[in-house]
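Methods — Computational structure assignment.
A single polypeptide chain was analysed. Its primary sequence is given first, followed by the predicted tertiary structure written as structure tokens.
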Amino acid sequence: MNIPDTIAFAMTSPSDDDHLICEGYLKKIRGFAQNRRRWFRLTQKYFAYFQEDGGRFIAFIERSNIVDVESVSPLKFVLRTSTPFGASEQHEMVLEGKTEEVTERWISAIKNDEREGDPGRLYVEGYISKVQPFGSFNRLRWFTLTEQYFSYHTIEGGEVMGTCPVSSIKDVISKGTYSFVLAAESPFTRTGSAVVTCKCENEHVRDKWLNCFTAILGSSKARPHKYRPLNNSSRAFTDTFAIAGTKTYEYKGTNSEGNRFIHDQEL
């Protein structure tokens, strides 16, 4: 199976004819003890799902093969396709959102192929733990990164809590195995901080976010490590020099100068 790049990888370089519309967790309703929570991605051309965010790819279908999307309850909707879709290769898939807002968000995105407002192209979104200072509990928030803004919300589809223009981001570096730290030119969080530490679900999710930041900001601002690249004004490797000289050392002690670990009385 040839998996499109816009489905298999993070949106590190959205093409003119396909880009991310939304992504997030939905529950596949299959029957008693068979329901599964999966990570879904919707682009202009494809609808796909994975085992988890940043996890193993399972299946995808072209948007042109989606026949209908119907709401069957406040939390559930049915996706009907003209060709078999999913591991079970059925023409219908029942999906459930965590909240009514999440379900409506997905139905609207699949039908209308658009996002509210004009935040620019979406690169990546998902739940990330916002690390708090010592003594406070971390907060699980919904983060989004577009070509114009980095923002976080109370929950998926919830109230916006903080927004930082991409042009104001100074630095994004990895921290530990699952985290990254973003520093902005001015405060943008509810607590009035210009620096936020984000802890992802796993290493693959962290790398997905860093790759998207790199695509937007460049490798000089977004880095998978704490070290900065060399300045472009650094000397060429052929511009070398050497220093010659003599280094002297005089031992002044009470013990043998032949071996300072042997005392005089031991000779």
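Note: DSSP finds three helices and 15 strands in the chain.
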